[in-house]
Specification:
The chain has a single domain, classed as NAD(P)-binding Rossmann-like Domain (Rossmann fold, 3-Layer(aba) Sandwich). It contains five helices and five strands. It has helices spanning 16-27, 55-69, 95-122, 136-147, 149-161, and strands spanning 7-11, 31-36, 47-49, 74-77, 127-130. The longest helix has 28 residues, at 95-122. The termini are close together.
């Protein structure tokens, strides 16, 4: 199968999209780690309590996965942290709430990607993807992620040259 033996972390694995990603990775032979703020950690059961808005939680989670499995082969940014007033009509959104959402989502994806890519680069393999619902914030996130493409390329050039890395924001592609 296409993902045989691959260790893939899916943030937000309890959500609608996350559940499907976890299931699909399993159907393709991979080991999907459901990393979500709403699960108890049991790496034997492939679950990891992870708060992507907390840098220490992200690093600790990555360290636990590497200790248990020896590596991370793929990372999917699928978690969707948001403020309690999420869903307010656009014209009624408080700017402070908007800023808080951008901070939680964009910066959390950045930190997760940066920390996971360092582990994958040290192992000379891995894949990264970002999955987001379609919102105005997603456009902002995508624009910012694209602006980070050049620095990210420098970090993962050895992975790309090895034919092991395909960054495709918005969806997963497993060759």
């Amino acid at each position: 199968m296409i993902l045989d033996g691959k260790i893939v972390v899916v943030t937000g694995g309890l959500g609608l999209i996350g559940k499907e990603l976890v299931a699909d990775i399993g159907r393709k032979g991979g080991t999907a780690i459901n990393a979500d703020i709403g699960v108890a950690t049991s790496l034997r059961d492939r679950t990891l309590e992870l708060d992507i808005t907390n840098d220490d939680s992200v690093q600790s989670g990555i360290d636990r996965i590497v200790k248990e499995y020896g590596r991370i082969d793929g990372w999917v940014n699928n978690a969707y942290p948001r403020t309690k007033d999420w869903g307010t009509k656009f014209e009624e959104i408080n700017p402070d709430s908007w800023r808080a959402n951008v901070n939680m989502q964009l910066n959390s994806y950045f930190v997760c990607s940066q920390k996971a890519l360092k582990v994958m680069a040290s192992k000379s393999k891995g894949r990264w993807s970002t999955s987001r619902p379609s919102t105005a914030l997603s456009v902002t996130t995508l624009a910012c992620m694209r602006s980070m493409e050049a620095p990210r390329r420098r970090l993962i050039r050895p992975l790309r040259e090895a034919g092991e890395f395909y960054p495709l924001p918005g969806f997963l592609l497993w060759p």
